Amino acid sequence: MAQKELKSRVASVKNVQKITRAMEMISAARLRRAEQRITSLRPYASAVRRMTRQAAEAAENLPNLPILSEREDVAKVGIFLVTSDRGLAGAFNGQIIRAGVRAAAELERDGKEVVFSASGRRGVGSLNFRKRTPAGAYVGFTDRPAYANARDIASDLIAAYVDGEVDRVEIFYNHYISPLQQRVTRETLLPLQQASILEEGEEEEAGEEGATNGDGHHRALVEYEPEPEEILQRLVPVYVEISIFRALLESTASEHGARMTAMRNASENAGELIDTYTLQMNRQRQADITQEIMEVVAGAESLT
Fold first, then answer.
1. Up-side HSE of residue 149: CA atoms within 13 Å toward CB?
2. CA dihedral 240, 242, 247, 248 (to 10 degrees)
3. Which residues, at least 6 apart from 12, have a Cβ–Cβ distance to it below 8 Å?
4. Domain segments of the chain: what residues?
5. So what's the pLDDT on residue 203?
6. Is pLDDT of 217 > 50?
7. What is the pTM of this model?
8. Which fold has domain 27-259?
9. Is 72 helix (H, G, I), strand (E, B) or coil?
């Protein structure tokens, strides 16, 4: 490879390295904000889930709400994928899409119909590419989701469940653990009886707050005003909204962490490539100098 071409490649890789370093710093700043939002939301989300469970245990007659009706025969399953609007985040989007498609294939082998929904342009585009057109597509907010976005998604999913378009709703998202680690999480959102209401560590806390009746269920040691049935009617939609909002925030933090890690790896790889090209360029320069010296010596010898 010519020395001029090597020099051009080094300059090109250095420009790419500047971009990846800038993207890494931007993702790091956004990650800190996303972590703060998750830290603030997690106690509230846990409290809503705990109150919903306690109200359901205290209610003698569950309200006649379609959202609380559990289907005997599950023929249609709704799968909601939480992805991002942008790429360059390593396996962040791919692992969610693969998990959702894999789950859909298993459900279809069992004779069930799958209805997809997705947030984020990456998930929507991938589903369209796979000819699995999503029933709901929500884009443009994955960098900083608002509660209103979760409310809109929850409204559509609840309506689909109530209208009988789906008999169960499952959600797939990346649970944020650290910038280097995100865990693909699959949860049942509807019906409420099958939903993952308890958070990690809440079971022990619930045991301390309530007594146990003869059937082995927790019985609340509080009096409700208004009646727990009415409270449950108000809590169920909020439970669905807060569960989706938490998944969106977890996914946002996971996205920024994954992108920060991917850009850091890209910067390090660019540095290694620059070192390799620089070494090749120096060797080529040395070879060119040696060749010129040999030509001068040969020319001098021919004159003698």
1. 20
2. 110
3. none
4. 27-259
5. 41
6. no
7. 0.81
8. Pyruvate Kinase; Chain: A, domain 1 (3.40.1380)
9. coil
